[in-house]
Amino acid sequence: MNSAIRRLAVAAIILMLALMANSTYLQAFRAGELNGRNDNRRVRDSQFSVNRGPILVGSTPVAKSAESNDRFVYQRTYPPNIAKIYAPVTGFYSYLFGRAGIELSQNSELNGSDPSLAFRRVVDVITDRRQQGASVSLTLNAAAQQAAYRGLAGKKGAVVAIEPKTGKVLALVSLPTYDPNELAGHDLTKVGASWKALNADKDRPMSNRAIKELYPPGSTFKLVTAAAALSSGKYNPQTQVRSPAELDLPQTTVKLPNENGRNCGGSDNATLTVALRNSCNTAFGSIGLDLGAEALRDQAEKFGFGERQLPELGAAASQFPADPNAPQTAQSAIGQFDVRATPLQMAMVAAGIANGGDVMKPYIVQNIKTVDLKTVSETKPESLHQAVSPEVAAQLTAMMVDVVKNGTGKPGQISGIDVAGKTGTAQTSPDKPPFAWFTAFAPANDPKIAVAVMIEDANVPRNDIAGGALAAPIAKAVMEAVLNQ
Amino acid sequence: MSIASTSVIQIMPRTRRGVELMLLIVAIGVSVGAYVNIGITVQDKVPASTGYYAAGIGLLALIAHLALRYRAPYADPVLLPCAVLLNGLGVAMIQRLDPGIRAIAVAAGRTPKSPAAPQQITWTAVGVVLFLAVILVIRDHRRLQALTYTAGLAGLLLLVLPLIPGLGVNINGARIWIRLAGMSFQPGEFAKLCLVVFFAGYLVVKRDVLTLAGHRFLGLDLPRARDLGPIGIAWLVSLGVLVFENDLGSSLLFFGLFLFLLYVATERAGWLIIGGLLFVGGAYFAYSTIGHVHKRITDWLDPFSIDQGQIAVGLMGQGWGGALGRGLGQGRPELTAYSQSDMIISSFAEELGLTGLVAIILIYTLIIERGLRTALGCRDIFGKLVATGLAMSFALQVFVIIGGVTGLIPLTGLATPFMALGGTSLVANWAIIALLLRISDQARRPQTPAAPVSDETIAMAVQKQ
Lengths: 485, 465
Description:
heterodimer; A: alpha+beta; Beta-lactamase; 6-stranded mixed β-sheet; 5-stranded antiparallel β-sheet
């Protein structure tokens, strides 16, 4: 009997070892996966109770945590007067609905759980201090951001401004917007109601029009077409381009007309400079037909089309149509058909031209610092693509300066400073108002800021909508905000 | 002469009661430490009740210890401290969970139940009283053999009790409780003890015929049906009752116990193979025909398919605990359903981490292996079988419940011995430990009188020859 009992003893030990092995797997190896689950209340509650680091613009917090005397210990707040201005960047931090924006992408740094903050955590444990997250400083320029917000007030649209030399995002505004405080509250019933209301709003205040929505860029895309033309070697700013009142599109009976129904500057042929100055559809349509879709797409991709930009906020990738036929190519050359771009992308086009053809990778997180101001990480400017040669960039700059001096971009003029710009008015469907665009940079000889303004809906009569009239003044205000500093 | 006396000294085991006392002090120290720790983390102060708590479990442990000194001096010195430690930790955790569970009930608009910790402390006292009764009343475990059939009948009766209308109550889908005089009991916990005695007593008598008589089939000597009859019927009835009561864990436990004892009694591994096949077949049958068994299995395979399901939340709690745990009082174990009872292991894993959980499993392993050691050392077959049965009942129970909570096997509701909230289980476990200690006293007691053999005795013995 004893040998049978001994065998049972061994079996019992094996059972217990199996329990220990399984627990080891669960608690040591699977813990990370379990803690990462969205439905994990323990992790969510504990993160919600952490003294989360602030998000800073300059030295002003646009999101901070304050002690609260309910079950979560800390309350995330967005200063009420600027909460809505920065909402498209900060995003929100909600118990029920997760996170968005910088609150989402920099979450582990803000709540202090990031591996780069491990040392800090150990210090906190030893000194028996509550863990405090790191602060995230943004590249945003408060004056530019506020100017953009004021300019867009009452309209539906977006503004993105970039520092051409570095790729720093100086302004990122999307309207209509929302108050993230409504989603960060600890009264979960109220939060739920706010969430429902925000989602039911047909103006979609939570959609980020600056970086996540795609729009036909219209005539601002002519900058890309012009860049492709100049880079091809077949064109220079003085090259005569066919620009009748209407362009016959091959393979179809459709004609591509100019916006005003007349030819470009009084002749059926115009120089590239004049064509850009007057934003002639027929001239750029025929350039598109001449260069072909491939060349246009190559050029667009060098400016950043087809890539997701600004990972901190998860921008959408702008698109150039996959396989357009000849008439579609002509349409695409003027930013119509299936060309779709974010305001961020069009700001990158202007910034690339401003920076001698070198498109810098846009970024919005300047640095991350611990509570005792030790820098954890600092973003360094990085080149994305050399979109055009410095010579072509200089030619484009001159042409864009001409647009603002003598052409459609006159409302963008700033006294005493050369502004380089391009207007755009993009049609989608007859029942929707066209999109008004303006993209520009200044000063033309030493660019400090490049900006793109897109207005989706401004509640003005359809015939009054034009990029120059609606969008350029906003761009001007944003540029002035930075240049006057 | 001198040879004789030295050999007596050599085989004479020491009582080791002093060791037991030392271990008890450690066990009480750890329990009180846990209690204080929880008070400090939750309320920022040493709980005012610490003195009472320490005095309470200290006194109970001391009484149990003195009873062993007095009536079972050779009993195993490790079993009692292990039981005290597990019981003490369990009470500390139940106490720690009470406010959280109350808060959740209030938040959900339910009337909170009365705090569970005082009940558990009361039941601990009852358990220790039963422990004393077993130690003091049963002077020799072999007397229980005379009760073989009585125990079998009592075991079956206890199992059937919850099925009696008006007496049995359905709690959380299992009909394993009876309500009497305003209190709930789980008679199955005592049925376990009775059936082990019955299995052992029956097998002592029948082991020879079970081993030898009958005919060979597939390399195994099958016993005659009439020898296997009573035990087979008992087994079938108990399983049948358990199926009706929806108590999967217990039915596995009873089946396993029966099989293990049959194996030990006959020393034929074939029984394990046949039993294993029967188990697989039965399990598959249950999976495909019984709804709640099917659900248990699918919950196990994909615990996250149910939103905030019991297993899923428990697993997340254990993951949250990680290797070192959140610290006592610093986790959120109350988020898990049944965090004081079925899922108490998950609560420990969350706050004490993998380290603490492994320590707890090791304490159970100690109890199991000490119990089997007792079986090995026991000189009578009945005692061997009872000790094996009791030790293996711990092994199965611990494996089934911890394995279920940690996701190793499908979860079946079984009490975590000594720790989980539940009076009957706690009391029954104290009785089981008492019985194991009683057998171990017999096993470790010197066979010859402990007094040194005098020269006269030897002289007389020589003269007789």
